Amino acid sequence: MPASYRRPPRFAVGCALAAIAAVLASPAWADPAPSFAELLARLDQTPATTEAGALLDAAEARARQARVRPNPTLALDAENAFGSGPFSGYGNAETTLSITQDLELWGRRTARINAARADAGTASLRRDLAVVDAAGRLALVYADAEAAERRATLAEENLSLTLADARAALVLVEEGREPLLRGIQGESEAAAARAGLDEAIAERDAAFARLTAVAMLAEPVTTIDVSLLDLAPATALSPTDQTPTVRVAEAERSAAESRIAVERTRSRPDVSASVGLRRYEAEDATALTFGLSLPLPLFDRNGGNIEAAQADFRAADARLMTARQEAQADRAAAQARLRASVSRVNAADAGVTSAEEAYRLSRIGFEAGRISQLELRATRTALVNARTAAVDARLARVRAEIDLARQDGRAPFQGAQ
């Protein structure tokens, strides 16, 4: 047998022990992330909510502008001046100073104001929906970062357990109670556990970087002290028709209906009234002038725009029907997923307790020589899987709470707003 197969794996196991010791003994600097509640309080500083707030400000400004009446037109006209014959020069000129005002008949101003108000109401609801979506994204990124941190911790624990089992197997190999193959297998398992730890650390760092960016933190996050995965979901309920998506769809439908009225008023003549003062130079006299003007609706009656507004209304009405149907289905699904995730968390916690006890008994039996290394490896793998499943179950519970919170129109893990 070649020498490489006869040597004990003590050197490789020792190197792995040194590697994990270096990881655990690294400088203890950490910049913990603010709690989810603290980040939620600063949600209005995120780009998504800032954009939605700016769009709302613009819509409210347009609503204020819609109330303003059109400016009057001031005109100065001169006739019969600087011509020929008796009209040479300015002696027989007629000068008129007039002011013209659009009367906005046929409810034109009211329709314009109502349409602008409807658009502002829609923008307000979209802002609320953007805040809810931003809160959900923040909760998901926060939970992903915490789950990645826990997985990295589990990977460290797995490496520690694997090395401990490898040391125990090495002792049995040296005592002749186990074949040399068991020591080589322990060395391979330690190397795989070390690679798993490196991968988990990389995923944790990436998740921390995403949390730092989404939360707009000045300093990079290196740890999470306040848990979100362990929080109990909120139990706030709201009617299906009160979900943010349905409210936005209803507002869009109302805005589309108000635009039909605007286009119909534009099909009617735009009447303007004028009053002025005319100066007769030849008679050295003045007189008032009055007038009304309106376009003749011979060619353009705004028919195309009216039909387009009516089509937009039908589309908005169809979107509202779809939103109501989807809201009902999505809410029922979110409630079902949340109930299932709560049960899954309880089952996972019970599984971790059982797996820990099974591994403890297997380790005692292995050291006493009553249990083989394969059985010990199986119980250790079951323990690692149970702990990972507990993290995954909590993350699934957070995702279910985020989905239900969006249907309720609130931030995750918060009461109804």
UniProtKB/TrEMBL annotation:
It comes from the Bacteria. Keywords: Signal. Residues 1-30 form the signal peptide. The keyword Protein biosynthesis does not apply. PANTHER family: BLR4935 PROTEIN, OUTER MEMBRANE CATION EFFLUX PROTEIN. Belongs to the outer membrane factor (OMF) (TC 1.B.17) family. This is Outer membrane protein CzcC. It comes from Brevundimonas intermedia.
